[in-house]
Design a protein that fits this description.
230 residues; alpha+beta; 13 strands
């Protein structure tokens, strides 16, 4: 479906919940509407349209300039829309894999079309219940002691689009450590501004430019810090 509009996409957009101490929020959302079996354009996943009631799958590729451990973050939410405009199901990404985003009793479906999802503090992977994050052994250290440890991340759809090196990774780690925090595990609702929506091809072109700008900002911020302590 190439003729989608922002109002229709907003009708099914997930309601996200971020930790009260979260330092980073989405800056762009790449939209793809899938209407037949095939691969996702933005991540390593393939879909099959076996349910005759399934009309389309809306893919929300949610982009952040920063994860607490690395420069850039891309997570996904997939909303399955039925032929009667109802929400049939939802999936949400989680560190390279995905889980069901819609609870079995559909108790986290708000206003009939919005799936309520919790974002892992600092790391942004999604779960339908916040208590599930306590199963992660590094829940608290990931946002604090190990902040910035992965530098400039190069994965998935951006393999070969840009590169990194030890010096870049060192600068990113140093910068992100200034944002380290302890999760409060108290979550506040965040609704995606439709102004953030774009097509996936446009977002794919935009990301390398955003990375360049972030690196320039990081170098300037650290230069000022060094000057202040000289």
């Amino acid at each position: 479906m190439t003729n989608w509009n922002a109002d229709w996409i907003a009708t099914y957009a997930p309601y996200l919940y971020f930790d009260r101490n979260e330092p980073f929020f989405p800056v762009r959302v790449g939209i793809t509407v899938l209407e037949a079996s095939g691969p996702s354009p933005s991540t390593r996943r393939t879909f099959e349209f076996k349910d005759p009631n399934l009309q389309c799958i809306i893919e929300y590729a949610i982009y952040w300039d920063y994860d607490i451990q690395h420069l850039y973050e891309l997570e996904h939410v997939w909303v399955y829309v039925g032929r009667g405009s109802e929400v049939l199901d939802c999936d949400a990404s989680f560190h390279g894999t995905h889980f069901k985003g819609l609870l079995r009793d559909r108790g986290n479906l708000v206003d009939g079309t919005h799936v309520k999802l919790y974002s892992q503090p600092g790391k942004h992977a999604f779960m339908p219940q916040a208590d599930m994050f306590y199963l992660l052994p590094d829940l608290m250290v990931a946002t604090d002691e190990t902040a910035g440890r992965r530098g400039l991340l190069v994965t998935g759809p951006f393999d070969g689009v840009y590169s990194t090196d030890d010096e870049t990774n060192r600068l990113v780690e140093r910068y992100l450590k200034t944002f380290r925090f302890k999760p409060s595990m108290e979550f506040e609702e965040y609704r995606i501004d439709p102004a953030l929506y774009t097509t996936w091809p446009e977002l794919h072109k935009e990301v390398p430019l955003r990375i360049q700008n972030c690196l320039a900002d990081i170098k300037e911020a650290l230069r000022k810090e060094d000057s202040a302590h000289a």
